[in-house]
Design brief:
52% of the residues lie in helices and 16% in strands. The radius of gyration is 21 Å and the shape is globular. The two termini are 13 Å apart. It has a 7-stranded parallel beta sheet with strand order 3-2-1-4-5-6-7, sandwiched between helices. Strands 10-9-8-11-12-13 form a 6-stranded parallel beta sheet, with helices on both faces. Helix 7 links the parallel strand 5 and strand 6. Helix 1 packs across helix 19, helix 5 packs parallel to helix 6 and helix 6 runs parallel beside helix 7. It is an alpha/beta fold.
Length: 377
């Protein structure tokens, strides 16, 4: 069968590649065409990569407006390519701004649509649920609580676990030991505290300065920022000037593994830290306060750790409550010998059971192939 996949971010490229490997196990004759990145190209062939995510990723309203003409051209290119290739299914991987428009087009032209990694409509933009109802034939969720949420909207999703578990398990073999990691990145021998400030300029602008300021109260520790390669080094440097804080690019998981604790901007990284086993404090400050308020109204929490556990495990410091003093207080509680550390690590064990074991990508792929074969028969 023919599979057309659309991912627009590095995480989508990773999870898309693992999904494609799973599809090949259950459909060895599978043909792929896709929007994604290098990891998907390794599985499906560079010749089948229509557009790399480096050309399609536009974060924030300013970037979207500035690149409006490019985005419209890319949408037209994708629509035309879909009609030419005529796949058995279009698999949308997160990336809702682009994918919802293509899902509508595919549905209206009789193409089957699967949505993998459901958009976080439960956190904000709940109106998008109606688009899922209209244009998505099958929704694949990655959190157990999402299934109950979508059923309230008469959507019966498929939950096969979380692909982040697979991604972490894959990378474990690649992690250097602590000594190698420290030497490779010019760090010293003090215990490490990771600063994960986010992957968007707006997140870094709002959250990194307070993270760096907090580091000054912990002379016995070295603070290391997890940087992302697609953002200019200068963006980080202006906030790190005058501090002892270091930066490591594109090794977030290894950095967390070798850190005694982390300060993490709310997002997928909060779940990653928990699955790796790194105690964390979650922070978030943004201009878009309305989104935060909607999230809290729906779930009482903003971090994926607390939402999945259904209670407060990690401290959440947001908006006006976000100060260096508050962050410092919560961070001390989860450092070695801190009063909350052991309890948090025990809750992380519970979280792993809730999220489910590895193999999610293959289980999801198997279900997709089964559904498509049922349709053919």
């Amino acid at each position: 069968m023919r599979y057309y996949l659309i991912a627009g971010e590095p995480s989508g490229d990773l999870h898309g590649a693992n999904l494609m490997r799973g599809i090949l196990k259950h459909d060895p004759e599978a043909e792929f065409r896709f929007w994604g990145g290098d990891m998907m190209a390794e599985v499906g062939g560079t010749e089948n990569l229509v557009k790399h995510y480096r050309e399609t990723s536009f974060f924030g309203i300013i970037q979207v407006i500035a690149n409006a003409r490019t985005i419209l051209c890319q949408l037209d290119e994708c629509r035309n390519d879909l009609l030419r290739w005529n796949p058995d299914v279009v698999i949308h991987i997160d990336y809702p701004g682009f994918n919802f428009k293509i899902a509508r087009f595919a549905h209206e032209h009789g193409l089957r649509t699967f949505y993998y990694i459901a958009p976080k409509v439960w956190a904000w933009k709940e109106h998008r649920v109606k688009r899922i109802q209209k244009y998505v034939d099958k929704l694949f969720t990655i959190f157990p609580f999402e299934s109950d949420y979508f059923r309230k909207w008469n959507i019966e999703p498929v939950f096969c676990g979380n692909p982040l578990v697979d991604a972490i398990e894959q990378r474990i073999a690649e992690w250097p030991d602590r000594e190698e990691f420290v030497q490779a990145h010019g760090l010293d021998n003090r215990p490490i505290i990771a600063l994960v400030a986010g992957s968007r300029r707006s997140e870094i602008k709002k959250n990194l300065p307070l993270m760096v300021a907090t580091s000054k109260a912990f002379g016995d520790y070295q603070f290391v920022v997890s940087g992302v390669e697609w953002l200019d080094r200068s963006l980080y440097d202006k906030y790190l000037q005058g501090s002892d804080v270091r930066i490591v690019f594109d090794r977030t998981d290894a950095l967390m593994k070798h850190s005694v604790a982390a300060i993490v901007t709310s997002g997928t990284a909060t779940l990653e830290a928990a699955l790796i086993g790194t105690p964390e404090v979650v922070v978030y400050r943004t201009d878009w306060l309305l989104n935060i308020l909607k999230n809290i109204a729906l779930h009482s929490y903003i971090s994926l750790v607390n939402i999945n556990l259904g209670k407060e495990c990690v401290a959440e410091i947001i908006q006006s409550s976000m100060s260096t003093r508050h962050i410092e207080q919560e961070l001390r509680k989860i450092l070695p010998d801190g009063e909350k550390r052991e309890g948090m690590l025990a809750e992380f064990d519970t979280l792993r059971k809730i999220i489910g074991p590895s193999g999610s990508s293959e289980r999801t792929a198997q279900k997709m192939v089964e559904l498509l074969k049922e349709k053919v028969q």
